[in-house]
Predict the structure.
Amino acid sequence: MLSLNFNLVRRSGLLKLDKIILLYVFAIFFVDFYDTTLYIGYSIYLRGLIFPTSDVFEAIIKFAAIFVLVQSFKISGFIMYSYIMHYQRKLTYLPLLIFFISSIGLAFFWGFGFIGKYAIHIFLLLRLCQAFAIGAEICSALKIINSNIIDERTKMAMYYFILFAGECGILVSVFINRMLLSHGITLLQFMSDWKFQLVFSALLALLAISVKLKYLNQYTYNTFSKKVFAFTVIRYWKLILIRAGVSFYSFLLILIVVIRIPYILEYEYKLSHETINHDLLLVTLMGFIGANVAYIASKYIENFSLMLFFYVLSMIANCYFYQVKAFENTYSYVTWILITGFFYGVFLRMTPHILNSVTDFNSKNRLIGRYISYFFVYTVCSSIVIFCLDFMHYANHALSNDKKLADVPILFILLCSSIGFLALLAYKPYYKKNYNRQWVF
């Protein structure tokens, strides 16, 4: 999907646009996804710093609850900037400044051992400030794009540039932290690397501040931009939810395969980080195979019908693994993970093709409508899934140590693939059948 979005951007001619605005947009969305992946995937390894008296599963559910709250503050920042800060020009730099200060504060956060019982309160306050600020700045970036880029084709290319920046953030965060964990570093070493990553995020925010101060003063907000978010949600809420339903399945596979499967393999099956990294490489290979199978099949079968077929195939495969109780031994569970990796590649390849081949929103609302749908998926839906997964594992270990609930991801995949299948059927009236082999913005 990373290379797919990059090729879309390159072929659209977007790279000929003002490099300053591209740098600003890339920095904002890269930092958002980098920090989200950092906390959702690897904050558990700091449990000794923040929750020293909790066992691993208690710490996991506490971090999951914090993640839900943080994502809600990101949405609050988005809405607040749209309705309040937008009208105060002097406040346009405030979100990035808050993000910079809170990131530096988290980088040099000393934890429970130094602060005592107030450590969790300080940690939570700084995380909420971070989330509120980045949510507000995302709104600011979208308003700048929507108000100052006239050509609709360029706007839609910018949408894929935003996705590309976010995917780069996820990739870099996962790569760095998996490499750190595979070397068996201590808590103290991980704290040092955590500080470096947070300072890196703060420096990107500082770069965005300097770019905004020096170059983006000439960019203005038009009258339509002031009302575009509320107007789009009110008029197109059904399309936003349908689009979210289609895209959520591929996002769920990312969350489960890249973020939560390593947790399960480590804490449920007691595998080493080296073994987990080896399994993740195999999953990546299966994803590559799945993406290419989807690409070859799309030359002979219409994309819409092909994606429906893979939804059904995914449901059948997961029903089988659930029936044979694949979670009861490591070998069968890893087999299920590899099969899931195959579908992960398939849907990462096909989802952007399908979502770009529909005529859904009005041209003036297309960028905002499509991003709001994406924003809804990775803030609201992802936080709910992460909390439910972690809560079920916590409940299992809190109530009984005999029965494993490592099959919970299988149930979530069954549920979300069913939702995606129904959402795709609902999208059929908007689908352009002649779109199979071309990209049109």
